[in-house]
Amino acid sequence: MFALRVTALIAATMTTGLTAGVFGLYQHTVMTGLGRTDDRTFVGGFQALDRAIINPWFMFSFLGALAFTIAAAFLNPGRQLLPWILAALALYAIVFVITMAVNVPMNDALKAAGDPDSIADLAQVRRAFDEARWTAWNLVRTLATTAAFGCLCWALVMRGQFR
């Protein structure tokens, strides 16, 4: 049982950290770089990135962070670890809701606009996407997943002290 408890906690920590890294990279690099491009490049580039991110690597991290953190909470019920794991779970649940309620619908709307070569008013499509809103919510996701990662790291430290 010890190995299963530790494995769940390590898996939760790693997948949460990977997801925090993805959101952080979008925050400080991808959106900053795309923001400096013309409308055609922004729309086409974002559409391509959004299609590419739906892959087994990302989905394992994004969904795994939630699943493994839930598993870690059930498998590590001790009062020393559980508050940290539950804090991470609450933070990640917020991230999951934001992703599904804000970022994914915005991404889907931009993809639904069609091929940039067939869009008559690319500037309007870009304005309708609202980069500032997307980036603001992504910042919340970045900070929350990073905080969740920190909570899980601390739970691992605590786990090492209280076997």
TrEMBL record:
Q: Where are the transmembrane segments?
A: 6-26, 57-75, 81-102, 136-157
**The UniProt record lists the keyword Ribonucleoprotein:** no
Ordered alphabetically, the record's keywords are: Membrane, Transmembrane, Transmembrane helix
Top-level taxon:
Bacteria
The protein, known as: Membrane protein
Look up and give the organism this protein is from.
Virgisporangium aliadipatigenens
The top of its lineage is: Bacteria, Bacillati, Actinomycetota, Actinomycetes, Micromonosporales
